[in-house]
UniProtKB/TrEMBL annotation:
This is CBM-cenC domain-containing protein. Residues 1-29 form the signal peptide. The lineage of its organism: Bacteria, Bacillati, Actinomycetota, Actinomycetes, Streptosporangiales. It comes from the Bacteria. Transmembrane segments: none annotated.
Length: 827
């Protein structure tokens, strides 16, 4: 459908495009696309059927349509989409169309033909009446001998009437819609010989890449895929360093491997997994003689790689209680390394000669979760903690211990900053480039906005150069301190890799939105209208948001919960992108609090749950910042600043639903990353309600034995339904003291897969099927009979996560970077 005048100029091109989709064409087949499915090009692709005439292209109600006019009972009229689309025997196909039956009845048929074009069956059919736009649907299984499937719009011999047809769309029962999001964002950058070496993250199915980028020409001169093995896959990395011998080292996850690249070569050497049972190498720093130092998660290990061997340095963890060695800085003159640790922030100086360890963290930052970045430059230690850049002067006391004095604390600063030059260090603060003068301890702002997330700085002569991600890809930013001249150049040929899907949801515009894992970005899929290449997104990736954790359509707007710092964004379809930032949960609460009696929540981080209220309110349930246990509930309304409340101390809020005039929330006994033990000892996940009128919170304990998490909630026929592990529970909001529970599936292995305690489970209703509730749990897609509460597994696929539905009643889930559509069986 196109809301415009009829046009037939594209007929030849459209027919050619269809023919290339027939057997013998490339095997890309995301969506089956009927030629001219919206009659934008008249009746091109629709062959005459039954009696001559009776069908003509017209504009009706602002739409381009096919009008079927049947003036008497003596004849039948129709048009069939021909040639048909490739079909597979035994596969179920579902046909959808939009129709306005001005008079009489309108009929839609699904037809199967063999390779010679012979009709095998009349096919399933659906009918509609009514002077308004109706969506009709029919489905059927391709019989033996099927080669093609097609659609027939029809008025039978016994019928009299006029109907207007539009948007004739088809899907098979299960469709791999392919990659939805692409990323050209480097995670780590190091420099050598006038070139940047940038590491680009992949997915579980697509290996990461190292790009060699010429700073002078802004071109990627070489791209090398990071090798791995099926037993030890490499997904991405956050660490890169150039050793004193010129070699480039990369630290990766989830296998904690170290790689070495010698500039000019065409391959990368896999040096193996660093010691221990951890998964991330978070940072790397060069040492003397070509050695490299590294820090890890999740055992807080400090190691070196020297002479072809890994060696653990000091104790494990290097700082008592630390799970992260998140950042490193090396002072080559003193042969000392500074280590930033977490999840309770720590900052120590480690003497690589004597093994002496000195604590340098200023007391004011003891309640922070992590020291996220360290640099030794200009004779000072620069430490980045929660967007504050500390400039520390390290001195040796008479007794031999080292202490740190804070020269400056610079707030709202981006993570990376430059090496010192001419006594100054450069960084981005509040979007503007600034300098810090080490001698005078003064800060000077420029009017320059780099406009990118810099992952590394270097000096090219007297010019500052930074490389990072912008909305349109990888860019190189330059600035000349002497003249104030600046530039920003898009890097040509930079890697563009699929991004894993982290969250998905249907928007108010009928499209399916997906959010990228780690590298961010937003994908948009127009249901049943995907292109034929499932290796690339159908539409360009929308840049500007970090990792999306939740998606909600409410009151005609799209809301997105984004990590880190639990940011809530709102978007009106058709408006400008990126959407408006409405609230930041990471700015709420106090780092010293964890919902102790009389205290507020800690800052929040991961917004896994969103729900809407009838008064326009948006509710957000969150997991706290690293090292904290207490999640929170955020309430935001247009015209307010929003607020964040403690609801269940020591538990995260991971599911929400509005029912019976109240908001209900489900908790998880798992707090943030870094809490030890992983699950709150002796705790049971619970259900709570929040009364918008009184702000009262009430707990509703579940009739289950020590559930770990309530990961799904939904309003169903006025009741509240939820999943706690493999158990379904229901509650009537009018009688909240009674909860019934029924086990549907065995509980997951919470110990082996603690991530399931945040988001394993979805429940939703589909308007086209009023008899069932649909959901996912583990690797299963299932439906529940609303009357009997009996569950039927429809599909079991390893790695399946998430669930949403489009306006046609089809379901969507994701596996890694790919989106899948499941057409629910129709009667």
């Amino acid at each position: 459908m196109r809301r415009a005048a009829l046009c037939g100029t594209a007929a030849t091109a459209l027919l050619a495009a269809l023919l290339t989709a027939l057997p013998g064409a490339p095997a890309y087949a995301s969506d089956l696309r009927i030629l001219n499915d919206g009659f934008d090009d008249g009746l091109v692709g629709w062959s005459g059927s039954h009696s001559p005439g009776g069908v003509d292209p017209v504009v009706w109600d602002g739409r381009t349509t096919a009008r079927v006019t049947d003036t008497g009972p003596a004849a039948a009229y129709g048009r069939e989409s021909m040639p048909g689309l490739p079909a597979t025997v035994g596969t179920r196909y579902t046909l959808n169309a939009t129709v306005w039956a001005e008079t009489g009845s309108a009929h839609l048929y699904l037809r199967f033909r063999d390779a010679s074009g012979r009709l095998l069956t009349g096919g399933a059919n659906a009918s509609a009446t009514g002077r308004r736009w109706n969506r009709v649907m029919t489905s059927g299984v391709a019989p033996t001998g099927t080669a093609t499937v097609s659609a027939l719009i029809y008025s039978g011999v016994a019928d009299v009437g006029t109907a207007y047809w539009d948007e004739v769309l088809i899907t098979k029962d299960l469709t791999d819609l392919g990659v939805q999001i692409e990323s050209s964002a480097p995670n780590a950058t190091t420099f050598a010989g006038g070139k940047a070496y940038a590491l680009y993250t992949g997915t579980a199915d697509v290996n990461p890449q190292l790009a060699e980028i010429d700073l002078a020409t802004a071109k990627a001169t070489r791209k090398i895929t990071i090798p791995d093995s099926a037993a030890s896959p490499t997904v991405g990395g956050w660490a890169a360093a150039t050793a004193t011998d010129g070699s480039v080292y990369l630290g990766t996850y989830p296998n904690s491997k170290l790689y070495r690249y010698v500039p000019g070569q065409s391959t990368i050497a896999d040096l193996g997994r660093a010691e221990g049972g951890y998964s991330f190498i978070w940072d790397l720093e060069p040492g003397a003689g070509g050695k490299v130092y590294g820090g890890t998660y999740n055992d807080g290990r400090y190691f070196k790689y020297d002479g072809g061997a890994f060696t653990t340095i000091g104790s494990v963890p290097i700082v008592a209680g630390a799970q992260y060695v998140r950042s490193l800085a090396h002072d080559p003159d003193a042969n000392a390394t500074y280590l930033g640790t977490g999840t309770d922030a720590g900052l120590v100086r480690f003497d690589n000669v004597t093994g002496q360890v000195d604590d340098l963290l200023p007391a004011a930052y003891a309640h922070s979760s992590m020291v996220g970045g360290l640099t030794w430059t200009g004779g000072r230690l620069f430490a980045w903690i929660d967007r504050t850049l500390l400039v520390l002067r390290v001195a040796r006391e008479a007794g031999g211990a080292y202490t740190a004095v804070t020269d400056a604390a610079l707030t709202d600063v981006d993570l990376h900053h430059s090496p010192a030059r001419d006594g100054k260090v450069w960084f981005v603060k509040e979007g503007l480039l600034h300098s810090y003068d080490v001698a005078t301890r003064s800060v000077q702002a420029t009017s320059v906005r780099p406009g990118l997330d810099v992952t590394g700085y270097t000096w090219s002569g007297a010019t500052l150069a930074g490389l990072g991600a912008a909305v349109d890809g990888t860019r190189i930013f330059t600035y000349d301190p002497a003249t104030g001249a600046s530039s920003s150049r898009l890097v040509s040929g930079a890697p563009v890799l699929p991004a894993a899907i982290n969250a998905l949801g249907a928007g108010p515009d009928g499209r399916v939105y997906t959010g990228g894992y780690l590298t961010g970005g937003t994908g948009v899929h127009d249901p049943l209208r995907g292109d034929g290449d499932d290796s690339r997104p159908d539409t360009p990736t929308l840049a500007g948001l970090d990792q999306t954790d939740s998606v909600l359509a409410h009151d005609g707007r799209l809301y997105l919960g984004v990590y880190p710092s639990a940011k809530l964004y709102g978007y009106a379809p058709g408006g400008s992108w990126p959407p408006a930032l409405l609230y930041t949960g990471g700015a709420a609460g106090d780092k010293a609090d964890d919902c102790e009696p009389g205290e507020g929540p800690p800052p929040q981080d991961r917004p896994y749950a969103l729900a809407g209220g009838p008064d326009g309110a948006v509710y957000m349930g969150t997991v706290p910042k690293y090292g904290k246990r207490s999640g929170a509930l955020t309430i935001w309304r247009q015209g307010t600043t929003g607020r964040t409340l403690c609801v269940v101390p020591d538990q995260s809020v991971v599911s929400l639903a509005y029912a019976g005039g109240k908001l209900f929330g489900g908790t998880s006994t798992r707090g943030a990353l870094g809490v030890d033990p992983v699950y709150a000892p002796g705790a049971s996940a619970t259900l709570f309600s929040f009364d918008p009128a009184t702000a009262a919170v009430r707990l509703h304990p579940l009739p289950l034995t020590a559930p770990k998490a309530v990961t799904a909630l939904a309003e169903v026929d006025g009741e509240l339904w939820g999943l706690a592990g493999g158990s379904l529970f229901t509650l009537d909001p009018a009688q909240p003291g009674t909860i019934t529970a029924k086990r549907l599936f065995p509980d997951p292995d919470w110990a082996a897969r603690p991530s399931l305690a945040w988001r394993d489970g979805v429940l939703l209703t589909v308007a086209q099927d009023p008899d069932h509730v649909y959901g996912t749990f583990g690797d299963q897609l299932f439906r529940i009979d609303r009357a009997t509460k009996t569950a039927t597994v429809l599909l079991t696929v390893a790695g399946m996560e998430g669930l949403t539905a489009d306006g046609f009643g089809n379901l969507y889930y994701k596996i890694n970077e790919r989106l899948y559509r499941f057409a629910i069986p129709r009667p």
